[in-house]
TrEMBL record:
<dbReference type="InterPro" id="IPR045230">
    <property type="entry name" value="MBS1/2-like"/>
</dbReference>
<protein>
    <recommendedName>
        <fullName>Zinc finger protein</fullName>
    </recommendedName>
</protein>
<feature type="region of interest" description="Disordered">
    <location>
        <begin position="87"/>
        <end position="106"/>
    </location>
</feature>
<keyword id="KW-0963">Cytoplasm</keyword>
<feature type="compositionally biased region" description="Basic residues">
    <location>
        <begin position="1"/>
        <end position="11"/>
    </location>
</feature>
<feature type="region of interest" description="Disordered">
    <location>
        <begin position="1"/>
        <end position="37"/>
    </location>
</feature>
<dbReference type="GO" id="GO:0005634">
    <property type="term" value="C:nucleus"/>
</dbReference>
<keyword id="KW-0539">Nucleus</keyword>
<dbReference type="GO" id="GO:0005737">
    <property type="term" value="C:cytoplasm"/>
</dbReference>
Length: 106
């Protein structure tokens, strides 16, 4: 049991975990949306399986997924959905947004 005046010691593992949590994009907010859509930085998921909607970063990964999950159906790479080509970021509208309680009163 430590006293009130004694500082607590942190392990290297805890410090590394805190640094990782603070510096890694976990996918929330506008930065996460841009990362998931793949328009700006390339994103993580480029291809999508048309059968089960599982996403993958490249053709080889999707080939492995298809052989493992859909062995009876022949693999056709032209049927894969390219998410980078189809996703478009929605533009903001010029309409005024409702207030805190949902009213547009002045």
């Amino acid at each position: 049991m430590t006293g009130k005046a004694k500082p607590k010691k942190h392990t290297a593992k805890e410090i590394a975990a805190k640094v990782d949590a603070a510096t890694t994009n976990r996918g929330g907010g506008k930065a996460g949306l841009a990362d998931r859509s793949g328009i700006e930085k390339g994103g993580h998921a480029k291809l999508e399986c048309p059968l089960c909607k599982v996403t993958g970063p490249d053709m080889k990964t999707m080939q492995i997924h298809h052989d493992a999950r859909h062995p009876k159906i022949p693999f056709d790479e032209s049927k894969l959905n390219n998410l980078h080509a189809t996703k478009v970021v929605a533009e903001s509208s010029s309409k005024p947004k409702p207030g805190v309680r949902g009213s547009l009163k002045n």
